[in-house]
Predict the 3D structure of the following.
Amino acid sequence: MTLDPDTTIGELVTQRLGRAAVLEAHEIDYCCGGHRTLAELRDHEGLDIEALERELERVDAADDSPPPEWAHLGPAGLADHIEATHHPYVRATIERLHTLLAKVVSVHGDAHPELSRVRDVFDSIAADMGPHLAKEEQVLFPMVRELADADVLPRFHCGALANPIRVMEMEHDMVGDHLRQLRNLTDGYEVPADGCDSYRALYEALEEFERDTHLHVHKENNVLFPAVLALEAELAP
């Protein structure tokens, strides 16, 4: 493997999904920051491209599967995939995490006061993501499907689709900030020595939620939204 410095972080994950774990381990943001190139990370953040290349080679050697099926979907198909795959997971997991957080805080909150802050930050995520998913399902994704079926550019109430997409990206950034706060508050989801099974289940579920959200946002920011904007530009008179 020889990594092209002009390759974006998002492209690395779209090509091989297993690479996400390497980027996560190095705290390299491939979702909200997936538009950045390797050269930009090298020049501005000191990324060792050769070392990253060696790690990605090991991951690729262990799993030489082709790009995931969703990487080949058109805008309408990808919107359907995201809504059917990630949206139910988010809703079900938020409900489960609320229950786990209440239990763990009640038992361990006195010894671990950071848990109250963990609960507050997660409550903010849950409060943001509910309306966010609804806007995608009721507003943005229907417009994406209409655009994909059109021969001429439709007239949307919001004007160009760049407008609601910009709002979605801003909300993605907010959730990303909250997830970073959770990781810091939990010391990287490290269960303390006195943590019970519920404590462990909580941290495992929070980390899984973080991984799923990163992939969810990646599919939108780095694959779906650019495809939608390119199609809109193609249909423009």
In short: The CA atoms of residues 76 and 145 lie 5 Å apart. The chain has eight helices and no strands.
